[in-house]
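Data availability excerpt. The first of two example chains:
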Amino acid sequence: MSRPDILEQIDLEALLSGDHDAFEQLVENESARLFRVIMRVLNNEEEARNVLQETFLQAYQRLGTFRRESKVTTWLYAIGINLARAARRKLTRYETLSEEDLDRLQPKYMVGMRRERYQAWDPQKLIESDERKRIVHETILRLPEDYRIVVTLRDIEEMSTSDVASMLDISEGAVRVRLHRARLALKKLLTAELK
């Protein structure tokens, strides 16, 4: 069943009138996808679970404020992204860097062991392995937050440009510009990472 079919099963009127079953269905249908988006913002599983729970709590409490100018899911994701951004700001105030984080911050010429490790990889095996996913994930996390969110929503979660624009409260043109810049930055980072 496609996503539009699933979303059509949720009775909007029942949801907005506070029907518990309709809200449960929304939670069931969107939890996994929303969690992935929040994880891309936070990169902290425990905090992402907390933000996911807070997102659904706030959405339930604010059902009366939904103005029908967008899809319910767009509104829900906007709440989740805003809460994730706020949580990220709190986390970065108290975050300590691991040795791996420090290694990434060093200029490439200082990270000889890391470069040697990458040179030993067979490119074909890299493409076929989970290592590729990990590298891409870590590289996406290195993008500025605005780029990271747009890439996650458009390229990973395959949301429409108009939905992303609504979620982030920016124009569709701004989404396209950020996405283009994010893809260029991602390509540059991945090229450098895999050399």
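And the second chain:
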Amino acid sequence: MKKSVYSIVLMDDVVEAVDALAYRLNTSRSNLINQILAEKVALITPEMQMKNVFDQVEKLLDGYSHFQIQPQAADCMMSIRSVLRYKYNPTIRYAITLDRSNNKRIGELKIISRTQSDVLQRYLSHFFELWSMYESQVQLPGWKIDQGGKWTRELIRQDEGRHDGEAVANAIADYIKAIDKGIKIYFEYNDNLSYLNNELSNHYGQYINSSIIRV
């Protein structure tokens, strides 16, 4: 949706209250006023669509005790923390960023590790090499390594079917559950590479066969 600058007259007390609420919601004054007006005239904005997707993702991940939903840094972002089955129980973070435009590209998923362990970083890099190999076999986007223990992957609709918010949320949640389980499988069996490759390949195949919508 196109945005333009308009001149409107508001009471100072109203602006003060809006600013206070915008601060609590971690958004801007303009964005909050835009959302309030859109709700009043029953118009669905991209921000509302993203919120609906994130709310649905949170519901779908509820019940998985190793997932911790983090406070949103922005309307277009959602962050989820998960504990690795490795010494000292390090954590990784899944950061979802959704695009405002309604194209085949939904957004981006970033996995972030803050570990200082070179060994753990090498393990994670090896995992993403294996996972990207499986993804390339079914023509899905692979993972790209970023600086500082970050891996990034585009989220792209792979079919022309149902693409409403609920369907997108299901696709994202299913993928996060699949890759999180894949990482846990990797750390459970990485001392036996032949067995690991078999288990990880079978797990990825089960995800592909069970997923209705792929991203």
